[in-house]
């Protein structure tokens, strides 16, 4: 075992502070890496506030973890000391269910182990996230991180990026497809860039007039204020696919009506209240309301390589980890466009 500095908390909604955690001794297939940067996801905030159930304490968040390898287990073959790597949401799964065999570890039938606040099947206790000096993970859940020009802002790709890439790929966004992106925040701004790089015609829907110009800057072909009834009416039955990134309550029926026949609206946001859907909205036109959740390890690697090829990273601010509480406060207020990344190297 190895003692490691980290930032975490021992109570719901309490400020994070510097503390010490332990990382396991390397097993034959383990990789240890120094954490350089870690993105802050809204789900980190939800967990800290106890909104996903009572967390384990001490709680060390962070699941968009980017670093450089410092040690390798004796049977690791595909990585080398000094290489840039990433770890996202998943650090373990059963490995033998149908989902795991299909490379869909996120749907593991026995349940995945998440990179923080998850029961640790290896060491006992629970997992600690990337708000820490170093991380240890089995090699099959570690990703090769391309050398992005803006390396810190590549960290959010490990959760936000794969969350939007996976459904865009699964529902075959590409040339000839008209794709709607509902919401332009931490997820939505990456969805615009990725959908455009795939070759789709992209329309952004936003409730914020100030984000209309941002949508164009990010590459969207069209931007619509959802309060503009005439613009919404003009799009009825026009879109092939809508990616819903909104995590607040909203009227899904309004957007289902914008789909062509056999179109799909796919939810990746996590509103706290159930969504209400009229049967007629999906019966008419044989439309579908679906959901998607992160992605498997192979698909996440594919996403990283795709984003590197197309020069896609998140937009936002990099702050030293000592300012983590300020970042969390601003995130809760919505005072960020579009992602915070913590520089962990000062630990």
Account of the 3D structure:
The strands form four sheets. Strands 3, 4, 5, 8, 9, 16 and 17 form a seven-stranded mixed beta sheet that branches. Strands 12-11-10-13-14-15 form a six-stranded parallel beta sheet, covered by helices on one side. It has a two-stranded antiparallel ribbon with strand order 1-2. It has 347 residues and is of the alpha/beta class. The model has no long low-confidence stretch (mean pLDDT 97). The chain folds into two domains: 2-157 and 315-343, Medium-chain alcohol dehydrogenases, catalytic domain (Quinone Oxidoreductase, Chain A, domain 1), CATH 3.90.180; 160-291, Rossmann fold (3-Layer(aba) Sandwich), CATH 3.40.50. Helix 3 crosses helix 9. It has helices at residues 42-48, 98-101, 160-170, 188-198, 210-218, 229-234, 252-256, 279-283, 297-310, 324-333, and strands at 2-8, 17-23, 30-40, 65-72, 84-87, 90-92, 113-114, 134-138, 143-144, 178-182, 201-206, 222-225, 239-244, 259-267, 288-291, 316-320, 339-343. It is globular and about 60 Å long. It has ten helices and 17 strands.
